[in-house]
Specification:
Layout lengths: L1 H16 L12 H4 L1 E7 L4 E10 L2 E8 L2 E8 L4 E4 L2 E7 L2 E9 L6 E10 L2
Antiparallel strand pairs: 1-2, 1-8, 2-3, 3-4, 5-6, 6-7, 7-8
Length: 121
């Protein structure tokens, strides 16, 4: 029984460490992310992402869109982070792309909407 537990334990640890990517988290330039980003999705819905308290590769994010409000701690990796069903990707020059998975309440079909955000300067 002890052998079985050690085997399970070692496999569990190995599985927990496998995040699917080999890229390590790296500290980011806080000035590139912090601030309020506003934009419109392709379906004409407006959104706002407020990024604050960037430290290392961590940040606090507030996401607002019509009928949706989310507060979340995020990890920034490869110029992007996820908040709820949305992915924010920094594209440079005070611009970012935001992609959000949206589920239609009538059909239960999920689609991806994309928008471009600009940071308020």
């Amino acid at each position: 029984m002890a052998d079985m537990m050690s085997i399970l334990s070692s496999h569990y640890t190995a599985a927990a460490l496998n995040t699917g990517t080999k890229t390590p988290y790296k500290n980011v330039d806080a000035k590139s992310y912090e601030g309020t980003w506003q934009g419109t999705y392709a379906n004409t819905k407006k959104f706002k992402v407020t990024v604050s308290d960037v430290s290392g590769f961590r940040a606090q994010v507030k996401y607002e869109s019509e009928g949706s409000l989310k507060f979340q701690s995020v990890l920034i990796k490869d110029n992007s982070f996820r908040v709820g069903d949305s992915k924010f990707t920094l594209t440079g020059n005070n611009k970012a792309t935001v992609k959000t998975a949206v589920t239609d309440p009538v059909t239960s079909q999920t689609s991806l909407v994309t928008g471009t955000a600009k940071r308020d300067v």
